[in-house]
Amino acid sequence: MDIPHPYLMFVGDVQDQLAAKTAQGIVDWRPEWCLGQLRLEGCKADLGIPDLTIAEAASRGAKTMVVGVVNAGGVLPEHWTSAIVQALEAGMEVASGLHARLESVPAIREAAAAHGRRLFNVRHSDQRFATGKGTRRPGLRLLTVGTDCSVGKKYTALALEREMRARGLDADFRATGQTGVFISGRGVAIDAVVADFISGAVEWIAPAAAPGHWDLIEGQGSLYHPSFAGVSLGLLHGAQPDAFVVCHEPTRTTMRGVQHPLPSIQEVIDLTIQCGRLTNPGIRPVGIAINTKAYGEDEARACLEAAEKAHNLPATDPIRFGVGKIVDRLMEDFPA
User: Could you tell me which residue ranges the D-glutamate N-acetyltransferase-like N-terminal domain spans (predicted)?
Assistant: First the structure.
């Protein structure tokens, strides 16, 4: 998709920061594309960029309003329609990462047609996928997996790409979610793919490559999450990863949106190896990425040291401390 920028980031009236993670991801990794944010009354998220009205954004050259939110079911709340229509009337395109298609709302569809504007549904792909085959293919692949949703799988993969490229390694981030597609300009939102074709779609995202090339595949959900484990498992089989990094948020006791307890890091390591061996018998963990945002400096370092000692793997917070030690382990385990 060729989605024109700069963007006006629309976060509606979401009730926490995590619900704006699509918008936040774009701001964090493509800040030069983001002019400002549009928040409705009652919004509890803040992207840390200027608050703009639609008119102000249009006058400053915004080309697309991005609906940068996530919610259960990926629905488009009815009371957001007027803001989307206003953006179209002001001359902007509109892009959304929700499951609901923008044109499914008559007022939005009609406004886009009347003003000659485009609607981008980033979560939906026109690409047709085969079923996964699980046949070994050349190239190297790393998958980020999680103890839960929204624990840093995308950020870890992007941080690994940046660090590995800085060291001269041949590495590419492979997006499997709407935010990643916005950031990279390519990929497939795996959770919108028909179940039978999930693993095949991942094989398409990360195809056969040169022997030394790394595809860094963005993980989704968790093998332990009762809502999303099906997506996570299909992604694992299609990714056929040689290596994986476990992503974790240490302050949670239950998984997001459900009452099930958060699995331990070791449980995720064990289940990932058990399931991943189906398509890559050599799968192995190479690191742990822990979101220590809730901790002070000393507490964060103590948490990481404890994880390293418990699992004999490098542990870091990719945003706070970088991913250098995980790349060191990767190069040690997979020498050129």
Answer: 40-124
CA dist., res. 130 & res. 200, Å (int): 5
Q: Indicate the DSSP class of residue 124.
A: -
In angstroms, rounded to a whole number, what is the distance separating the alpha carbons of residues 28 and 191?
23
pLDDT-above-90 percentage for the chain:
90
Same domain, 211 and 154: yes
CA angle 24, 26, 27 (to 5 degrees): 65
Distances (CA, A) of 170 to 162, 206, 212, 216, 271: 11, 14, 7, 11, 29
The DSSP H or E segment spanning 286 is strand 284-290
Whether residue 79 is found in the same domain as residue 167 = no
**pTM score, whole prediction:** 0.85
Residues 6+ apart with CB under 8 A from 232: 145, 219, 220, 221, 222, 223, 225
Instruction: Indicate whether 107 and 160 sit together in one domain.
Output: no
Q: Residues 97-109: pLDDT tens digits?
A: 898 999 999 999 9
Q: Could you tell me if 38 and 180 lie in one domain?
A: no
Q: Could you tell me if 174 and 273 lie in one domain?
A: yes
- pLDDT band for position 73 (50/70/90)? confident
